[in-house]
Design brief:
- The protein is mainly β.
- The chain has 2 helices and 6 strands; from the N terminus they run H-E-E-E-H-E-E-E.
- It has a 6-stranded antiparallel beta sheet with strand order 1-2-3-4-5-6.
- A hairpin with a 3-residue loop joins strand 4 and strand 5 (about 125-145).
- Residues about 1-20 have low confidence and may be disordered.
């Protein structure tokens, strides 16, 4: 009695016996380790900040995980650009032919660092592991004008581990 009172005052955890709920809940560890693994990541994207040209991208990234938190890799993409309705309106209203340079491809060398790792239960049965990572890199972008430019990329992304070999 004295030990349980002292534990309650000091904030020590107490063991409770649940007679009604015999189910034991266990939190699993990570299903795999990323250290020394290679990751292939196909992706698609689009630009949202160009009023005259809408770009769509399809690309692939390859990363090597040096440790559980740190990875290095390369990524590249092919771009597909289309003129927007505003481009055609500028041509028609002002009798102008705006000079635009479409992105055709880009490639970057990147490093990423896993900032946080967690897990949650989906539909009270499926345990999903996730992490949040920051990425940054430098590379080259090629345009339809035949020129190339230095490219920098930076971002934060969320990864959901659906199985030992598949992430979203």
């Amino acid at each position: 009695l004295v030990a349980s009172l002292l534990g309650a005052v000091l904030g020590a955890p107490q063991v409770a016996i649940a007679a009604e709920d015999p189910q034991v809940r266990v939190f699993q560890r990570k299903p795999f380790l990323r250290r020394e693994r290679v990751e292939l990541a196909p992706w698609v994207g689009m630009t949202v900040n160009d009023a005259l040209i809408q770009h769509y991208y399809s690309g692939l990234g390859v990363s090597y995980h040096i440790s559980e938190q740190l990875a290095v890799g390369i990524s590249g993409a092919k771009a597909y650009g289309d003129e927007t309705a505003l481009y055609e309106k500028v041509q028609g209203d002002f009798a102008l032919n705006p000079v635009v340079s479409k992105v055709e491809w880009f490639g970057t060398a990147e490093a990423s660092y896993a900032l946080a790792y967690g897990k949650f239960i989906l539909f009270n049965s499926l345990l999903v592991h996730l992490d949040t990572s920051a990425v940054g890199g430098v590379g080259v972008t090629g345009t339809s004008a035949g020129s190339s430019a230095v490219t920098f990329d930076a971002g934060v992304f969320q990864r959901f581990f659906l199985s030992r070999w598949l992430t979203l």
